Hints:
- Helix content is 40%, strand content 21%.
- It is globular, with a radius of gyration of 16 Å.
- By secondary structure, the chain is of the alpha/beta class.
- A six-stranded mixed sheet has the order 1-6-5-4-2-3, sandwiched between helices. The chain has a two-stranded antiparallel sheet with strand order 7-8.
- Zinc ion (ZN) binds next to helix 6.
Amino acid sequence: MAWEPNIEITTDEMHRFFLREAYKYAYRLSDDPMTKVGAEIVKKTLKGYIVIGYGVNHIPHSVDETIDDCSSEGILSLLTDRNWKINSIHHAERAAIQWTREVMREDPREKTMYMPWIPCDSCADEIIAAGIIELIGHKQMILKTPERWHESTNKAIEKLKQENIKLLMYDGSIGGAFSVFNGEVWQP
Ligand SMILES: [Zn+2]
């Protein structure tokens, strides 16, 4: 049976713009050749919605300094090692929260996060702790979630709901962006 994430659908056109930005940002800046994920934190102001934080999945800067083989082949071989990646890579959601606080000097509390995919279990904890109140994903991306992630993402979804975080997934094509997910290049 196909995996059906328990997330409410939205077709509100406003979400397309920010999801597209998250895809474009990830495609440009993630250093993982297999899966590029981007997250954005958006704040509502009197003049409309503005982005106050971006993040992509990436090699932590502390690793850049400690790995023996810093050549692009060396980094590539690390990134194709799934176990290393699961334990080491810095996830987009965490990076976006950090950017919001440390670079933009903004508070992620009460804000919306756009993240085309679904957070893993530990990013869900970070999102809850940061006080994000709404999380918007993209259905066509979420449905690509490999089976090995289902347990973690199901747990994350339940946890976020328990904390009353509004979870939505936009259903429809985004257009104007490329994405790389699980080794596949596709147009969301
Ligand atoms: Zn994560």
